[in-house]
Specification:
Distance between the termini: 48 Å
Shape: globular
Radius of gyration: 27 Å
CATH architecture of one domain: 3-Layer(aba) Sandwich
Strand order of the largest sheet: 32-33-35-34-36-37-38-39
CATH class of one domain: Alpha Beta
Oligomer: single chain
Number of helices: 13
Structural class: alpha+beta
Strand content: 25-35%
Largest sheet: 8 strands, mixed
CATH superfamily of one domain: Alpha/Beta hydrolase fold, catalytic domain
CATH topology of one domain: Rossmann fold
């Protein structure tokens, strides 16, 4: 049990020769006058990401997962959709005593892990570890520092999506196993859709063929495993529980269901939702909400004896042993600010189950769970667009305080605040420019565990007193980055063409000197606000360029206009500050951002070069271009991210207008496209359309295809492909940033060295 920086296990060296060969091509110069190293893709591969997996109720112990990009480099993307395939994304696991800072490696070498939950007495950590024989249930005992495997009697196969829930007495764990013969059935179903000599699909079936394959993942038997002898007791086989939890006395299992009934294109039908309570002793389930296509969203009291739900803005509470629901918002729905009724949403129950915290457009309200008194404990600002973001993290054990995260919308001011539920007074616990995640407050409020970045470095795990004092770093994950020049970030504000006030994140060149202008490469997608360590931006700024992530604002039905209305204005803001050379601008994006990039360059020639990473170019062919995700592309266009708001047959012109390939003749910007053979989201066939179109039109275009890649091209492939991906991206922009005064790219101001 030693400090992390001294005992971190060695990283795997898969494809080592290929990586070394690729590295010889990466020749970026040192990025600062202090002789710090330049940030490179090889450095990116070894950056350790620490995440809080589970914290004990008393805050005394925290389970932390540690992962690098190398741990995600062995995925077989062609197996996407195979219910029997477990993606080999590996993780290390440690437990830290937050009182002493002592660290214990539970899984010191990379293993496929999932789950993570502490026992009711806070002494044992349960999790799943995948090995040659499938998933195993493992226990780490913090009292002894030992890890053991719970052998299930009969050696059934634990489901890859099994829940992991401790019984309140700590003697058993709820999980799920596969039915006999499941693996053979699932493998055969995948084979019949991929490698069979004849593949048949028939619209007379209720489900698309790929939906039928996907649904096999839900076939499981819910069981209780005794931790003393590994005996397995089946408690539920006819339905698959969603979000299972025990009542406080351990006698009842509470859960909802989500049972597909047919393939749906609208996201509003095709699934029945229900709510149930299962008596553990008798195995008899009680139906609390009859299954129907109406979604079920309830909030359970801590004891599990009653639940709350919202309906048309009103909130109801119902005991599980009674069919009578009581509206607790009756008489409280008059709004002060307008004539419409207040619409309440449920946030959480108080620990004692006596009251609930509700939210409305006017504020936060504490209401008696039996109906009656309601108090507004926090008044919200009138303007929703400028109102700070607040999210409840925990109640104190005595119900007197509510802890919530806070983030301003116009500046980097983030942290944790505490609300007095009686007086409504708000006290700041932590508030500064840091970027905070995963707040965990101990039951008694004496200890807070969280992850924090200064905005430019990777997260570390911290512990502090309940009032925010004596904050102490529990980890030091990346001491090697002390020798590396990292990007410095700044929040930028600008107006789009419609006058919307937007924000973007500007990342300064590693060797930035005031008074000089530099190239800029923008990464576009949707909205950006929070900074934090970003490998993409660090690779770009290591070249002596600005990196930029501007936001856009969408109008449903006209999504293709968003990037033209905002991105050039955002870049102009930086040019006007004298930071950027307007002749050396680049733009790229991945997935939806790649789609955005292709659309943008059909509408403007502002950019010297562009890159589309795994982004579609033809939304019409894209509708059915990725069969393994079934109807997702239709739903994305009609009611989802693509924001067209209508079907192809209702408004075909909008599909044409948002397909960049239809306007390929207008593109003047040199375009690099990168794709992956195993991309289940945006198949390379979609990007191929743009390559063929631009070549036919005698435009400058390069298409790079990674046969082992997935969604993200080389970034979702092997280590060697990851490095190759970034080398090609950097070379592409460097080639098209015109040198000043005839100087070579590697010698120009703000430039960098590249391979020949």
């Amino acid at each position: 049990m030693s400090h992390l920086s001294a005992t971190y296990p060695s990283i795997r060296g898969r494809d080592a020769l290929a990586v070394v060969a690729a590295l010889t091509l990466w020749t970026a110069v040192p990025a600062s006058a202090q002789d710090l190293e330049a940030f490179t893709p090889e450095i990116a591969l070894d950056v350790r990401t620490a995440r809080i997996a589970a914290v004990t109720d008393d805050g005394a112990r925290v389970a932390v997962t540690v992962q690098t990009r190398r741990d995600r480099a062995d995925v077989d993307h062609q197996r996407f959709g195979d219910p029997t395939y477990v993606s080999p994304v590996s993780t290390r696991l440690m437990v830290i005593d937050t009182r002493s800072g002592e660290q214990t490696w539970v899984e010191p070498e990379p293993v496929v892990l999932r789950g993570y939950t502490w026992s009711p007495d806070d002494h044992r950590l349960a999790y799943y570890a995948h090995g040659p024989d499938g998933y195993a249930l493992r226990l780490f005992d913090a009292s002894t520092g030992r890890t053991s495997t719970v052998g299930l009697r009969g050696q059934p196969e634990i489901a890859s999506n099994a829940p992991l829930v401790w019984a309140p007495d700590g003697a058993s764990i709820l999980t799920s196993i596969r039915p006999d013969g499941w693996a053979d059935e699932a493998r055969q179903a995948f084979y019949e859709m991929t490698d069979a000599p004849v593949i048949v699909q028939d619209s007379r079936n209720d489900f698309l063929a790929w939906d039928r394959v996907r649904n096999l993942s839900n076939e499981q038997v819910t069981v209780l495993v005794s931790l003393s002898d590994g005996s397995v007791r089946e408690i539920l086989s006819e339905m698959t529980p969603v979000g299972p939890r025990f009542s406080a006395d351990g006698q009842t299992l509470l859960f909802s269901t989500s049972e597909p009934t047919k393939t749906s294109y609208t996201r509003r039908d095709g699934t029945d939702y229900g709510l149930f309570a299962l008596d553990i002793a008798s195995g008899a389930p009680t139906t609390l909400v009859e299954p129907s296509e109406d979604r079920v969203s309830v909030s359970w009291s801590e004891a599990g004896d009653r639940f709350a739900y919202a309906e048309d803005g009103a909130v109801f509470v119902r005991p599980i042993d009674s069919g009578e629901a009581v509206e607790i918002t009756e008489g409280h729905r008059d709004a002060e600010r307008d004539t419409t009724e207040l619409r309440f949403s449920i946030d959480s129950w108080s620990p004692d189950g006596a009251s609930l915290l509700l939210t409305s457009s006017e504020g936060w309200h504490v209401v008696d769970a039996d109906g009656g008194e309601m108090r507004r404990v926090l008044e919200l600002e009138d303007d929703e667009d400028t109102r700070p973001r607040r999210s409840v993290q925990a109640w104190s054990e005595d119900g007197r305080s509510i802890y919530f995260s806070y983030s301003a919308r116009d500046r980097w001011e983030r942290g944790l605040q505490r609300l007095d539920t009686r007086s409504g007074a708000v006290e700041t616990v932590v508030l500064d420019t840091g970027l905070y995640r995963s707040w965990n407050v101990s039951d008694d409020g004496s200890r807070i565990v969280y992850a924090m970045s200064d905005g430019d470095r990777p997260d570390e795990i911290y512990v502090a007193n309940g009032d925010g004092s004596d904050a102490t770093a529990l980890t030091e994950m990346n001491p090697q980055l002390d020798r590396v020049a990292l990007a410095r970030s700044e929040l930028i504000e600008y107006l789009d063409v419609d006058g919307n006030r937007l924000h973007g994140i500007l990342y300064y060149p590693a060797d930035y000197q005031p008074g000089r202008t530099y190239p800029l490469v923008a990464e576009i997608y949707e909205e950006y606000f929070d900074n934090g360590f970003n490998e993409n931006m660090n690779i770009l700024t290591a070249q002596g360029w600005f990196g930029f992530r501007p936001s856009v604002r969408f109008e449903e039905g006209y999504p293709g206009e968003a990037w033209l209305k905002a991105v050039p204005n955002a870049v102009n803001e930086i040019i006007d500050r004298g930071l950027v050379d307007p002749e050396q601008l680049g733009v790229y994006g991945q997935s939806y951002g790649g789609y955005a990039t292709n659309l943008l360059i059909t509408q403007t020639d502002r950019f010297a070069a562009a890159a589309n990473v795994s982004g579609k170019v033809n939304i019409i062919s894209f509708l059915g271009d990725s069969p393994k995700i079934t109807t997702r592309n239709y739903a994305a266009a009609e009611v989802g991210q693509d924001r067209i708001g209508a079907s192809l047959w209702e408004q075909p012109h909008k599909y044409i207008n948002t397909s960049a390939v239809m306007f390929a003749d207008r593109i003047e910007t040199p375009l690099l496209m990168l794709s992956g053979e195993g991309d289940w989201n945006v198949p390379a066939t979609n990007q191929r359309e743009m390559y063929y179109a631009l070549r036919r039109l005698d435009k400058e275009v390069v298409w790079v295809h990674y046969t082992a890649g997935g969604h993200g091209a080389g970034r979702a492939s092997s280590e060697a492909d990851f490095i190759d991906h970034w080398q090609r991206m950097v070379d592409w922009f460097a080639e098209h940033f015109e040198p000043k005064d005839g100087a070579a790219v590697s010698d120009q101001e703000g430039g960098s060295g590249f391979r020949p």
